[in-house]
Amino acid sequence: MKKPFKPSASAKLSKLSLVISAALFSSALALTSAPALANLPPQVDGHVMPSLAPMLEHATPAVVSISVVGTHEVSQQNVPEAFKFFFGNRGQNQAQQRPFRGLGSGVIIDSDEGYIVTNNHVIENADKIMITLKDGRQIEAKKLGSDAKSDIALLQIEAKNLHSIKLADSDNLRVGDFTVAIGSPFGLGQTVTSGIVSALGRSNLNIEQYEDFIQTDAAINSGNSGGALVNLRGELIGINTAILGPGGGNVGIGFAIPSNMMHNLVSQIIEFGEVHRGILGVSGHSVNSEIAKAMELETNQGGFIAQVMPDSAADEAGIKAGDVIVAMNGKPIKSFFELRAKIGSIGANKKVNLTVIRDGDTKTFTVKLKQDQSAEIAAASIHTMLKGAQLTNDSKKQAVVIENVAEGSPAHMAGFKAGDIIIGVNRSRIKDIAQLRDQLKDTSGVLAINIIRGNISQYIMIR
């Protein structure tokens, strides 16, 4: 088992130095529009010229370029036309297997272990992943795991003299904080752009299933996907993921996955090889003026709980329908979507403190999250012959259900079909995906997968 990833300690800067940095940054933005000043020396009349270069000298070596080759099924996506991902031909309208090549970016988060974080859509369906470091070295990477619902993936390379980036606490971000985006747009090579945090907690955009985006106006384009969004200390505050681009280009509205959310997900991938998503067991709505008026609430923000599932984590903790969740672990919750995204990035069996308004009173509940058994697992990470299959645990049948099989995929060619129930490998009983993974891990030769199809028990042989 790999050691859990721990972010490096943040650099300590005095309040005065932060104020000076912000002032210098503003001056730098103003000076960039004056070509006549472009070649001025570092000092003019004894005054140091403002520059982000010292910070970037430490941050940019941790950002890499990613190139991939593979095959994918090109089909209609449930993504609004205005939202353009930074990679591949994800929005095309056909349903067939096609070879592809693509470019993206990634961030080294642990130089000792060679861990690189990027977006799932950058390396999805890739057969070969090549990493290009800032110093020009090219190294093939292996995929350790990914989470399509939040669009995070973790890669690993073996190399010496790597540079990792420090993580910031993204919960401390404020609208107006300066940002710098680092990535490789259009395959041009490493590029740096600057801007500010335009908004926080962006959700309900139908880009991913779990959304709690940082919005920034730092220019990001095709190829920046998976790259770094950093603050003026050079600390990672987000992973650039998508843009709002009706014309396919940058219009100053980009979205990044917060570093805290990324860290929670990556830690699970390192420990388990997949995300063990926590689930609260509620449904609800974001509080607005209409709900606030109907329920006589004094707040227009938070997550209104419409239903609590029986025997769920929320039910066992004492949360009830009609409650309004306004904070988690002491940090404000602005909407139900934000609540869902934050809960969804925290691992199963973890405890969270939820601040709730009930009948005008404020209460705090400690909730132990349960595991989301309906989450689809990337079957390819279990065995290459299961690539193209979507697996879920069925707790009632104590088995693994194949929800879907992509036509033409290795799983389809092996003979698996949607609806098949996996109950065993060779002579061993299988009750869930974890046991299936354990049975198939590091095995060679022919394996007999025992399935139930309809009312018939049969075996499918894979190698």
Automatic annotation (TrEMBL):
Substrate binds at residues 121, 151, 223-225, 280-284. Its main location: periplasm. CDD domains: cpPDZ1_DegP-like. Pfam families: PDZ_2, PDZ_6, Trypsin_2. SMART domains: PDZ (SM00228). Keywords: Hydrolase, Periplasm, Protease, Repeat, Serine protease, Signal. GO terms for molecular function: serine-type endopeptidase activity. The active site is at residues 121, 151, 225. It comes from the Bacteria. GO terms for cellular component: periplasmic space. It is found in: Periplasm. Residues 269-360, 366-455 form the PDZ domain. Residues 1-38 form the signal peptide. GO terms for biological process: proteolysis. The keyword Manganese does not apply. Belongs to the peptidase S1C family. This is Do family serine endopeptidase.
